[in-house]
Amino acid sequence: MPITSVPFTPYTGVIDPGSKRYQAAKAMIDQGKATKSETQEKYKAKLEELRALLRMLGKDTSVVDEMAKLYEGDDELAIRNIMGRLDEDGDPLNCYGVAGMDVTGKDPSAWQQIIEIPEAARQDMFDTALREYIRDRGMGSGDTDRTAVFTRYQLSVKKSDRLTGTWTLEQYERCYNRAFYSIVKEANPDWQPGQQFDSSILNGITREEVEHRIIQTGVGTLRLTSGNEINVRGHPKLCVNLRCGVE
Predict the structure, then answer these.
(1) According to DSSP H, which parts of 57-104 are helical?
(2) Pairing of strands 239-242, 228-231
């Protein structure tokens, strides 16, 4: 099943003003106050106009005070809300509760690189990609477990490797899908993604065989080599030529 996002909850622990989490949250609050000061003054002016109108009509003006409180908010509550979205180092958590995945302000060349990925994570991605390729007839769909695969990997490695590692694992995923496409296309030259095919064609393919044909072609790119073959054990007579870059 596709992974679901982690419900947001405010930070409920003891607030330590010296902690990185608190300091990051406080900085966000202060920045927000600085940028909204002009808007706040306009809002207050509108509230005073409303207060004057209510007085003129002989109405209770306490609602204006309540509206002002809502706008100004409670600093501790606001800080707890933000702290709930940060890890202990003050780094943002994504919607799946993983820190280290924020690309804001980062140069893509700093994280779009190839690094070593544990075999277990590559196998997890291979198995998921193969299963979904067969199920979806070579077409992507919103019903996918790939986010769960990425999240399992991210939580298994140190935070500093998560962003670059996720990029690398996605490069492997693309190569796996390219291999599946080539095998099905070799068996059925007229086949197009989205059309039904005999899933037994892919029975014999293994991650190791595909990865033997993967090379790094740039700082941040993995591709299948051209002119190499994979023997698919489920079909002894079927030898697939992996065409690099063919769409």
Answers:
(1) 62-72, 75-83
(2) antiparallel
Give the Cα separation of 213 and 121 in Å (integer).
Answer: 18
User: Cβ contacts of residue 120 below 8 Å, gap of 6+?
Assistant: 156
pTM of the model: 0.78
- Alpha carbons 242 and 231: distance in angstroms, whole number: 11
| pLDDT tens profile 14-59 | 999 999 999 999 998 888 766 666 666 777 788 888 889 888 888 8
3-state secondary structure the chain: CCCCCCCCCCCCCCCCCCCHHHHHHHHHHHHHHHHHHHHHHHHHHHHHHHHHHHHHCCCCCHHHHHHHHHHHCCHHHHHHHHHCCECCCCCEECCCCCECCCCCCCCHHHHCCCCCCCHHHHHHHHHHHHHHHHHCCCCCCCCCCHHHHHHHHHHHCCHHHHHHHHHHHHHHHHHHHHHHHHHHHHHCCCCCCCCCCCHHHHCCCCHHHHHCCEEEEECCEEEECCCEEEECCCCCCCEEEECCCCC
Helix (H) or strand (E) holding 231: strand 228-231
